[in-house]
Every structure is written in C-alpha cells, then in structure tokens.
Amino acid sequence: MFLELQNLYFEDLAVGRAERISKTVSSSDIVGFAELTGDRNPIHLSQHFAAKTPFGGRIAHGLYTASLISAVLGTRLPGPGAIYISQTLNFRAPVRIDDTVDVEVKVLELIPEKFRARLSCVCRVGDEVVLDGEALVKVPSSGVQKVASA
C-alpha cells in the first residue's frame, strides 16, 4: 500500500477538512508487523491459540491498525513533513484478517502560533468503530500567511 503523496501546508488546512484511506488486512500484513516489531503474541499469529480466546480467531495487532492513521498523517493530511507530537488511542473492537479498515482523519482545531493541528482519528470496519482517538501534529508552513477577509 503506497499512497500518493499530498503536500499540505498549515495555511491549506481548515477545521473540518478530512482525508480517508482504506486497507484490507491480510495474514501477511500481520506476520510482517510481528516480524518488524517483535510482537509475536500468538493471538496474532496462531489460529490454534487464538481460537481458544474470546476473539475466536486471529486478530491484527492494535498498533498495526493505529499505524494506518500514521499513513494518513504522513501522506495525505497534512502529508510529508508533518511531525507527530502526540496520539491518543482507544481500541474499541478487534480487526481480523480480510477486514477492510476505513481510516478517517479530520481537522478539529488549528493552533496558528505553533503551526499545530489537532486531528480526530477514526478507524472503522463497516459501520463499527474499531479504534478512535486524537492526534496533535506540527504542520509545515508555506511561509505565506493568508490574510483573513472581512
């Protein structure tokens, strides 16, 4: 999944602006994430183990789902040059193999004196919210301040 880059500057943002991506989770995504992070919890990797849990089968790492938010921030809203300051995460429901995760990031607040944006982050599978939270990011400035109209 390589997303087309969209370069937005602080001056391009407005409260309510949103970007979305979708990603269908594969077994190889989960295995790759485990290899990358070292998190080899069998609930993610072993169907035999996971079948005995309340989930009844393998689930994706919660931080794998959260990393899809990072993909939006780094490529779409605000895009290249954005710097994570903080992120809250609320894990609401499991993500399973073959689920399609729809990620939406929306501007909630702009803080001009620091070139920061507070963003709503929501991940859904179908109509169910599986993860939500807020991010605070530093956004590059174009160096041109827009003049507010009267």
From TrEMBL:
It holds the Pfam family MaoC_dehydratas. One of its GO terms (molecular function) is (3R)-hydroxyacyl-[acyl-carrier-protein] dehydratase activity. GO terms for cellular component: fatty acid synthase complex. The lineage of its organism: Bacteria, Pseudomonadati, Pseudomonadota, Alphaproteobacteria, Hyphomicrobiales. GO terms for biological process: fatty acid biosynthetic process. It comes from the Bacteria. Keywords: Lyase. This is MaoC family dehydratase. Coiled coil: none annotated. Residues 20-109 form the MaoC-like domain. The keyword Lyase applies.
